């Protein structure tokens, strides 16, 4: 077996990454910290979203898949913001630029928009 193969076979399978973000505008409006918990998305989930949606709709659906907390399907939250669906809730709760910023954070957690490899220098 190769060295890399041995290393990979011994490695623990990582849990999906999550990260918490304080939303500045909503925190200011609410008078207390509004914290979103975002998680990484797997390859097939991202591929499905990209296949079905483009542009801002793709960003909204990346958020729907990537936001762990708050629960965007909560009936009370949907009702409070007059939204029939979680996608509509995202559009009512967040400004367009905020949707873009947060979807980029989900993408970063998922390995996009960051450099994940480095070239080995020859000795």
Explain the overall architecture.
The structure is a single chain. The chain is mostly helical and 123 residues long. It has one domain: 2-Layer Sandwich (rbstp2171). Helix content is 53%, strand content 11%. Strands 1-2-3 form a 3-stranded antiparallel β-sheet. Helix 4 packs across helix 7 (96-109). It is elongated. The two termini are 23 Å apart. The relative contact order is 0.15.
Helix content: 40-55%
Helix and strand sequence: HEHEHHEHHH
Query: What is the strand content?
Result: 5-15%
Largest sheet: 3 strands, antiparallel
Supply the helix-strand structural class: mainly alpha
Number of domains: 1
By CATH reckoning, the class would read: Alpha Beta
**Major sheet: arrangement of strands:** 1-2-3
Would you summarize the structure shown here?
With 123 residues, the chain is mainly alpha-helical. The protein has a single domain (13-109), classed as rbstp2171. Helices cover 53% and strands 11% of the residues.
Descriptors:
123 residues; mainly alpha; rbstp2171; three-stranded antiparallel beta sheet; 3 strands; 11% strand
């Amino acid at each position: 077996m190769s060295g890399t193969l041995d290393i990979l076979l011994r490695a623990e399978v990582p849990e999906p990454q999550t990260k918490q973000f304080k939303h500045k505008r909503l925190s200011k409006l609410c008078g207390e910290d509004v914290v979103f918990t975002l998680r990484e998305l797997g390859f097939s989930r991202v591929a499905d979203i990209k296949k079905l949606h483009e542009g801002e709709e793709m960003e909204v659906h990346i958020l729907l898949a990537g936001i762990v907390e708050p629960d965007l399907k909560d009936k009370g939250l949907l009702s409070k913001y007059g939204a029939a669906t979680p996608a509509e809730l995202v559009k009512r709760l967040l400004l367009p630029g905020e949707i873009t910023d947060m979807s980029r954070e989900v993408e970063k957690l998922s390995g996009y928009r960051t450099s994940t490899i480095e070239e080995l220098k020859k000795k």
